[in-house]
Write a sequence for this structure.
């Protein structure tokens, strides 16, 4: 039976109190409670004739070191945890609907935070209470049913060491829900550069660090303070705390996660008094302290007058709590004049109010005399709170959970085989370990109006309250609920926070604190991680050209969509405007006017030559070639207009091919004229066989054959990969360029290359014939025209390749106009000069006169 009962003892506290079972010290049921001091964790229990024993651990301070006065190392607030258990048991026993005809009792054990006494008390739990005989129970009427877990996990280890021998299963509390809630709070306020301060516990590093790091939280420091074991270590502890505090204050991290046991806040309050930095500073630097649910607001007696500024602005995670009706009146009814079996109230009263009862002091009385009329509501928060704290609320709900589970189990059993004894029910030889089955999924509404539920793993389905600790100038203390974490809600909706209700530490001047290793990289910049440092420490570099960042602290910049482009600050994308070289804009209009102007000049020159077609100057160098050359130049100027305007399918097909063929005709005419001049001078030599080649036939053949080759190239281009309208979204960042895609750029350069070949041949022949007699020789002018032509198109290639958008089209138009104007000016301006201004030179005698 003992092993079966112990099975119930251990599984319940894990589900209810979220903290392990605490240490135990023996308390004889017939000995008054006041004979025991409030030094260590307490396990509460009790016996009645037909009672069910519920043990509940209550956290009290560690036994004082022998070199310190006993009353200086006492935590009066630990008495507060006895009251909810008393209140819950009282309510249950007065409720005829819950456990009828059954009395719920409890016992209290004091452990003094000592492993030896914990082990001894654990053996008492599984043995006869009056006579300690390990592993032997003879009083089956007074069996232990359940233990309600306490505040400090280290005690559970000592208890489990004994209970594991009896195959009693243990359940460790899952703290991941609390850590996820803290993580949500950090991410909500964008506190990504934090510190961790823990007292003798590795859970923070084992669970918190990996979980937080995966979500982008960095750690400025992780400091662990050792637990005080011997009095001789107190100086070392103080030195360690001083160094830790100075490191915390000196850190750029404004948020510190404080993880510890229920009693660690007493040591935490030492930090400002041990720090050298704060003693040398008029205004100490504030921090946002985030306290975990295990940490309780407590204080040693000797810390009564200590400054509490370090506690102002603390954000504490606590399991959800509420005040049951009547609890405040129950607490107010507690007076030292009528303890009614509560032997702790006298010690608590003396320690909390700093007074003594004369009848409890041997010899002369030192200090104030306790009147018994002192008001509990006047005590500071670290000593006593009139409201039910989260730890007390856990105990209250735990007792009710045991009661409801027992009631459900008894109800199911009584239908089978109840045994009535003295008006009560005796469940002899009943497998009470089956209480676990009834704890799974249990759900009830407590008197405070809260629904208490346990899942199939006996984990309590409750969230966390986020409370803000507010300390006034008169040292009064107040808890303000500023948020909540719902563990059953989706992760994105689990946290609710009222930022306006939070009172920050005075150092922050009530502005929301920031906790960053590096100030945020604003939109337009991206993160560059510093080598060898945490990923939260970085430099901010501007986004490269063509990319933006529209949020803070972006790891990389990104390109806009094709239809958009970055603004000047590179933090937003602006829609692009469609553009092309149009006749309406100044550039397109000026090029169009230039093309028309040169076309007009060419037509005028053609008219002059037609009008003076019978003059020697016009007839001297093949009149038909001259007409063909002028017409082709006229068409060259006009072909430039195909490149201006909206690029539709027809213009895209025509512009390059028309330009290529017409220009090839023009250059072919120049080549034919050059060859005609050379052959004419050779043919004039006596006995020359070249006379038969001189004539219109050769010139026409040269023009036709050279032009035909270019026409074939253009035809193949149109068949294989014709040009087509295209919207270029990438060439120009701010614009969508509407242009003609050349299809295969190879054909485009083949067209240019062939024209360049013809021009080079013409230039070469003309250059060799440049010293022939001037009267019959226009080779000199052809040489200059071909030099201009080749220079223009050689410059065209790099200029075209380096241009973007409509400026590429403008470069090509300019090259067409410049090269055509070069041919027109160099070849025909001297002749026009002679025809119009020097007609006396335009006669046969002058032309046949030789230079030598």
């Amino acid at each position: 039976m003992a092993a079966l009962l112990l099975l119930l003892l251990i599984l319940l506290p894990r589900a209810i109190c979220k903290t392990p079972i605490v240490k135990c010290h023996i308390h004889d049921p017939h000995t008054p409670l006041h004979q025991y001091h409030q030094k260590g964790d307490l396990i509460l229990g009790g016996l009645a004739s037909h009672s069910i024993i519920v043990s509940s651990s209550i956290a009290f301070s560690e036994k004082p070191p022998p070199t310190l006065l006993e009353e200086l190392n006492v935590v009066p607030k630990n008495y507060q945890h006895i009251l909810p258990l008393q209140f819950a048991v009282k309510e249950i026993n007065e409720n005829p609907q819950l456990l009828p005809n059954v009395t719920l009792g409890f016992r209290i054990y004091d452990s003094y935070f000592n492993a030896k006494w914990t082990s001894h008390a654990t053996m008492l739990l599984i043995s006869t209470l009056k006579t300690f005989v390990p592993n032997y129970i003879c009083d089956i009427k007074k069996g232990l049913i359940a233990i309600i877990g306490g505040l400090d996990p280290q005690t559970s280890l000592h208890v489990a060491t004994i209970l594991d021998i009896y195959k009693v299963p243990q359940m460790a509390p899952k703290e991941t829900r609390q850590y996820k809630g803290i993580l949500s709070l950090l991410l909500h306020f964008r506190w990504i550069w934090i510190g961790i301060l823990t007292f003798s516990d590795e859970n923070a590093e084992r669970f918190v660090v990996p979980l937080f790091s995966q979500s982008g939280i960095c750690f400025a420091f992780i400091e662990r303070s050792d637990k005080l074991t011997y009095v001789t270590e107190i100086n070392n502890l103080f030195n360690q705390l001083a160094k830790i505090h100075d490191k915390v204050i000196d850190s750029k991290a404004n948020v510190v996660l404080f993880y510890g046991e229920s009693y660690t806040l007493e040591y935490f309050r030492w930090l400002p008094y041990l720090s050298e930095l704060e003693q040398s500073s008029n205004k100490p630097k504030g921090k946002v302290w985030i306290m975990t649910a295990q940490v309780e607001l407590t204080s040693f007696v000797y810390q009564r007058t200590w400054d509490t500024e370090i506690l102002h602005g603390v954000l504490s995670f606590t399991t959800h709590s509420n005040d049951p009706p009547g609890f405040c009146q129950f607490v107010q009814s507690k007076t030292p004049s009528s303890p009614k079996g509560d032997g702790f109230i006298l010690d608590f009263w003396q320690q909390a109010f700093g007074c003594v009862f004369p009848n409890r002091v041997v010899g002369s009385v030192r200090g104030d005399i306790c009147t018994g009329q002192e008001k509990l509501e006047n005590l500071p928060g670290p000593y006593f709170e009139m409201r039910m704290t989260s730890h007390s609320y856990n105990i209250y709900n735990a007792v009710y959970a045991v009661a409801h589970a027992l009631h459900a189990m008894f109800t199911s059993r009584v239908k089978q085989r109840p045994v009535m004894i003295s008006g009560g029910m005796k469940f002899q030889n009943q497998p009470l370990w089956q209480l676990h089955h009834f704890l799974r999924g249990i759900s009830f509404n407590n008197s405070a109006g809260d629904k208490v539920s346990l899942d199939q793993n006996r984990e309590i389905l409750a969230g966390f309250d986020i409370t803000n600790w507010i300390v006034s100038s008169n040292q009064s203390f107040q808890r303000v609920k500023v948020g909540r974490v719902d563990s059953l809600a989706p992760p994105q909706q689990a946290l609710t926070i009222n930022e306006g209700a939070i009172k920050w530490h005075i150092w922050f001047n009530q502005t929301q604190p920031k906790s960053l290793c590096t100030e945020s990289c604003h939109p337009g910049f991206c993160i560059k991680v510093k080598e060898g440092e945490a990923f939260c420490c970085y430099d901010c570099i501007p986004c490269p050209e063509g990319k933006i960042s529209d949020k803070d602290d972006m790891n990389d910049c990104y390109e806009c969509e094709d239809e958009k482009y970055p603004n000047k600050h590179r933090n937003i994308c602006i829609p692009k405007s469609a553009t092309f070289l149009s006749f309406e804009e100044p550039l397109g209009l000026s090029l169009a006017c230039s093309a028309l102007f040169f076309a007009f000049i060419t037509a005028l020159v053609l008219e002059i030559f037609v009008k003076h077609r019978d003059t020697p100057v016009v007839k001297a160098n093949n009149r038909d070639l001259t007409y063909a050359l002028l017409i082709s130049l006229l068409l060259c100027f006009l072909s430039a207009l195909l490149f201006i305007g909206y690029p539709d399918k027809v213009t895209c097909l025509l512009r390059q091919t028309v330009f290529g063929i017409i220009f090839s005709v023009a250059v072919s005419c120049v080549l034919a004229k050059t060859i005609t001049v050379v052959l004419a001078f050779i043919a004039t030599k006596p006995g020359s066989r070249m006379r038969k080649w001189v004539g219109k036939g050769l010139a026409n053949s040269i023009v036709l054959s050279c032009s035909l080759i270019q026409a074939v190239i253009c035809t193949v281009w149109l068949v294989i990969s014709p040009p087509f309208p295209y919207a270029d979204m990438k060439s120009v960042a701010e614009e969508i360029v509407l242009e003609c895609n050349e299809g295969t750029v190879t054909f485009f350069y083949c067209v240019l290359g062939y024209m360049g070949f013809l021009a080079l041949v013409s230039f070469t022949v003309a250059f060799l014939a440049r010293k022939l007699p001037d009267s019959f020789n226009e080779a000199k002018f052809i040489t200059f025209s071909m030099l201009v032509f080749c220079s223009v198109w050689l410059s065209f290639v790099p200029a075209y390749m380096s241009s973007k958008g409509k400026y590429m089209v403008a470069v090509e138009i300019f090259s067409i106009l410049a090269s055509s104007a070069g041919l027109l000016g160099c070849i025909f301006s001297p002749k026009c000069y002679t025809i119009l201004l020097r007609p006396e030179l335009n006669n046969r005698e002058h032309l046949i006169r030789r230079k030598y």
Summary: The chain has three domains: 74-95+174-517, 525-574, 586-848. The chain has 23 helices and 27 strands.
